[in-house]
Amino acid sequence: MSASAPTTDSKSLGHVREVFHEYITNEMPINLLHITKHDQKISFKLVDRDFIREHFKSVPSNIHAEFAEMMLVDGEAREDRIKERVKKELKYAIFSHRWLPDKQEPLYHHVPKEVPDDHSASKKVPDVAHRPYEPGWKKLEDFCCTAKDVHDCEFAWSDTCCINKTSSSELDESIRSMFRWYRNSHVCIAFLWETADLAALRMQEKGGIDKKAIDAWFVRGWTLQELLAPSQIKFYGTNWEPLIQDSMNDRDDEVIMGKISELTDISMDDLRSFTPGTDRVPEKLFWASKRRTTRTEDIAYCLIGIFNISLMIAYGEGNRAFFRLMEEILKRYDKWDVFLWSGRCSHYNPALPDTPRSYAAECIQISRNAAIQAAKHEIGDRRFALTNHGLEIRVLLLVVGVEDISEKLPDSRCLSFKHDYFKVKVTHIGPEPHNKSWAIGVLDYCVDGEEGNIDRSRGTPFTGFLLSSNADASPHLKATSKWKKEMTKEVVTIDSPDHVQERLTLLYL
Predict the structure, then answer these.
(1) What is the distance between the alpha carbons of residues 89 and 216, in angstroms, rounded to a whole number?
(2) Bridge partner list, 438
(3) Which among 7, 212, 440, 504 is least surrounded, fewest beta carbons within 10 Å?
(4) What is the pTM of this model?
């Protein structure tokens, strides 16, 4: 028995080391800033994962000794405990901020890769005042000071200088992993450059101007995941004073979270604890609808972590990036409310939007009402799919006639339609229609075998696509290829005063 003990102990230590190395490789950033302090002056250098392994090489032995008895228990629970312990030891702060304009931020190639051991004046890293890109350097140094002095983090990560953007593989891995890096951080330090203090934040309003203008941090694409991913987040104002005193995690503060919820339309539950995934798609896209990114592709890439999907990074593809994001979402999402959008369609499929801006506040309430109905009935087609013929979807097809055309503009007009059981007005976008037949393809019908129905007893409007076809098309032409989706400025809704039931129609849009 005693002879086998060292072997068992050695295997246990080896397992801890495996978890340690895997965690560094898979869960930590590729590069980190190593922060040191000498004579009250902060210095930092970029280090890689090998440096982290060497720096924390005693951690596996310490964890093994601490969990010696638990090592006798096999299973995932043991490995999870080890991983959590490793995460606690390998803590780092992560930065969330709005980039300064005009290339003022220090980038990867600007930051020292090593700090000399000799701190003599001739060898030490130049002071901030003598560095290029001064405002950016000052901000980076303030972040590092806060990380080390306030949050006791020896390591830190900033998106400005910790990614080698000349390496396509490193850039790709960084973007795909960023949500996870923010989630694994010890604390996210969020710097609101345009907000002096909590009182200033509380004055801000959506659409406000001057002192009431919303801080740019709340309307940038990348800061959405930076707000939601970290387990701990701490907000700092213009002068690097915390907006909330005597708190290490602002998620626990009702005042600041309540204000952020008001500014971002994100619920308090999601602000306190967000779980990524392909659920509540319209709501999450609505969060992104008022946010902007400098690069067109980034409005898709910044949502990868929110939806927990994988997407190839390909700068230069433009709006196709958002189409590919929607493609991946539709592979995992089977609720009709993903089509609750309005405005311009994608160049790659008319049934999908061009940007997240197509999702408006009204779609959220419609989606929530439908969720209540879904508890009572099967709602809409759950087998829709993107194919090489377009979007394959079953709708309740209700043919309508044009009753009036008004408010004509070069690229839009208001169309009034009439059905035997209802009327509906729609602002149509695109060239002026000529010689068209029209229909509403109801999406959220109640399923009844191969048929669908809408009924006034539901108490809420139904939604659908505005569809058109060539009036001169052959009557023998199948509906699957006859009808095309039209663009509208609002989500099409109908109120039916009676029960309407028809056989469902398969369309390829």
Answers:
(1) 34
(2) 400, 468
(3) 7
(4) 0.90
